[in-house]
Amino acid sequence: MPKPTIPALQPDHIRELQARYERALADNGYDSLLIASGAAPYRYRDDQAYVFQGFGPFLHWTGLAGQEHSWLLIRPGQTPVLWLYQPVDFWHANPELAEEPWQQVIEVRSRQQTSAPALEECGKLAVMGDPLVLEGVPGDHNPAALVAAVEETRVLKTPYEIECLAHANQIALAGHAAAREAFLAGESEFGINLAYQQATGQREAEAPYHSIIGLNEHAGTLHYQYYEVTPPGKPRSLLIDAGVRYRGYCSDITRTTAGVDDPKFAALVHGLDALQVRLCNMVAPGVDYVDIHRKAHQGIAALLSSSGLVSGLADDAIVERGITRVFFPHGIGHFLGIQVHDVAGKPTPAPADAPFLRLTRRLEEGMVVTIEPGLYFIPSLLEPLLSGADAQYVDTALLDELKGCGGIRIEDNVVVTATGARNLTRER
Ligand code: GLY
Ligand code: MN
Ligand code: MN
């Protein structure tokens, strides 16, 4: 039998959401829920608005990321109703709505007004969305327990969601290949960004997050946010962390490429890539995600030793003395879905040895996570190490040689399956 197309999978996804939401509403004593898509606020004393990306729960049902001022009503045992804002407007266009199977399971009504629709016979009503658009709307606004229950419905992805994430990976991978070619051809950060956008066919405003494109030292700023227009004299490294949004779902992929004559840095990239693959292979139901984070630290200690950056200490001691945290200061990853750092990852706080970890749960079939170890040369983190007692273990000459490469991160998007993992980023 041919594989169903992605749109053909969406009605079952919506039926599953209906069941999950009915439980969340019943558990929290509500009869109905109105969800606002949201709207981009205007800048202070300006007639220009911020970039709009829709509210997570609205996208969870509809995937319509660009649809402002729209409302979705969920009631137990009834077809959801979607009021789409489609004004007659000679300044702006309305987003085109392709005819798709989801419209057989959600009733769509067109609307001219931005305000919430008037509702009848909804019983005890909750309303969820950006508080900026909820002013004056009847019902309980964003009740905390219901918001938490609704966020929990996003933890286990349906088959439809997994295929959306897989497709978002395929599009982004074409962008990463183009970015790498542009780097090897000597392009600037700006030029590499253009190559990525061209290959993915995605505007910056639609991307799930601002693409991080760092050459040389810039690769060592974790969320580097600028694009130099001129290429560096000697391109030594490219770190690109960039994704794509497809039907609301995000990919979040990082690749690092060494310049042509940097064999020591290239060896480190190769070593981190091998470690990242081993970490991806740990993903399976029942595994504690925090253990993958800790395994990453052990692997980075081994890499620091084998490269000669740190010597005279056993790998365990390199971790225990906090040296790996100087080189790998962030968490091993997070949930991925409608938001790049998807919700409900931390029912318990991050442990003291991993303060920036965004996911502290035991893995279950249907979760989608990123696995993104890094190894960076960050001056503000290196300084205390190099001025302290542990400086004796560090090869400062080698560090000086590598510092100009900034750092390395390798990041894939991985689904927890019944028996192990499906790595969406290494499927081509
Ligand atoms: N792109 C941000 C992150 O990897 O978490
Ligand atoms: Mn990530
Ligand atoms: Mn990323």
Report what the structure shows.
The chain has 2 domains: 6-152, 3-Layer(aba) Sandwich (Creatine Amidinohydrolase, Chain A, domain 1); 159-423, Creatine Amidinohydrolase, CATH 3.90.230. 33% of the residues lie in helices and 15% in strands. It has helices at 6-27, 56-62, 144-152, 159-184, 189-200, 263-282, 289-307, 315-320, 323-327, 379-386, 396-403; strands at residues 32-36, 71-74, 81-85, 107-111, 125-128, 140-141, 212-215, 237-242, 245-246, 249-250, 253-258, 368-371, 374-376, 407-409, 412-416, 421-423. The strands form 5 sheets. It has a 6-stranded mixed sheet. The chain has a 3-stranded antiparallel sheet with strand order 7-8-11. β9 and β10 (249-250) form a beta hairpin. α4 (159-184) crosses α5 (189-200). The longest helix has 26 residues, at 159-184. The site of glycine has 6 residues, from loops.
Largest sheet: 6 strands, mixed
Q: Strand order, biggest sheet?
A: 4-3-2-1-5-6
Count of individual beta strands: 16
Instruction: Give the name of the CATH architecture of the largest domain.
Output: Alpha-Beta Complex
Report the sheet-strand fraction: 5-15%
The count of helical stretches stands at 11
Mean pLDDT: 97
What structural class results from the helix and strand content? Answer: alpha+beta
Helix and strand sequence: HEHEEEEEHHHEEEEEHHHHEEHHEEE
- The gross shape turns out to be globular
Helix content range: 25-40%
Structural domains: how many: 2
Question: Which fold name fills CATH's third level, the topology of the largest domain?
Answer: Creatine Amidinohydrolase
Q: What are the low-pLDDT stretches, counting only 5+ consecutive residues below 50?
A: none
Q: State the CATH superfamily name of the largest domain.
A: Creatinase/methionine aminopeptidase superfamily
- Based on CA atoms alone, the radius of gyration comes out at 23 Å
* Beginning-to-end CA distance, first to last residue: 22 Å
- Small-molecule components bound: glycine, manganese (II) ion
CATH class of the largest domain: Alpha Beta
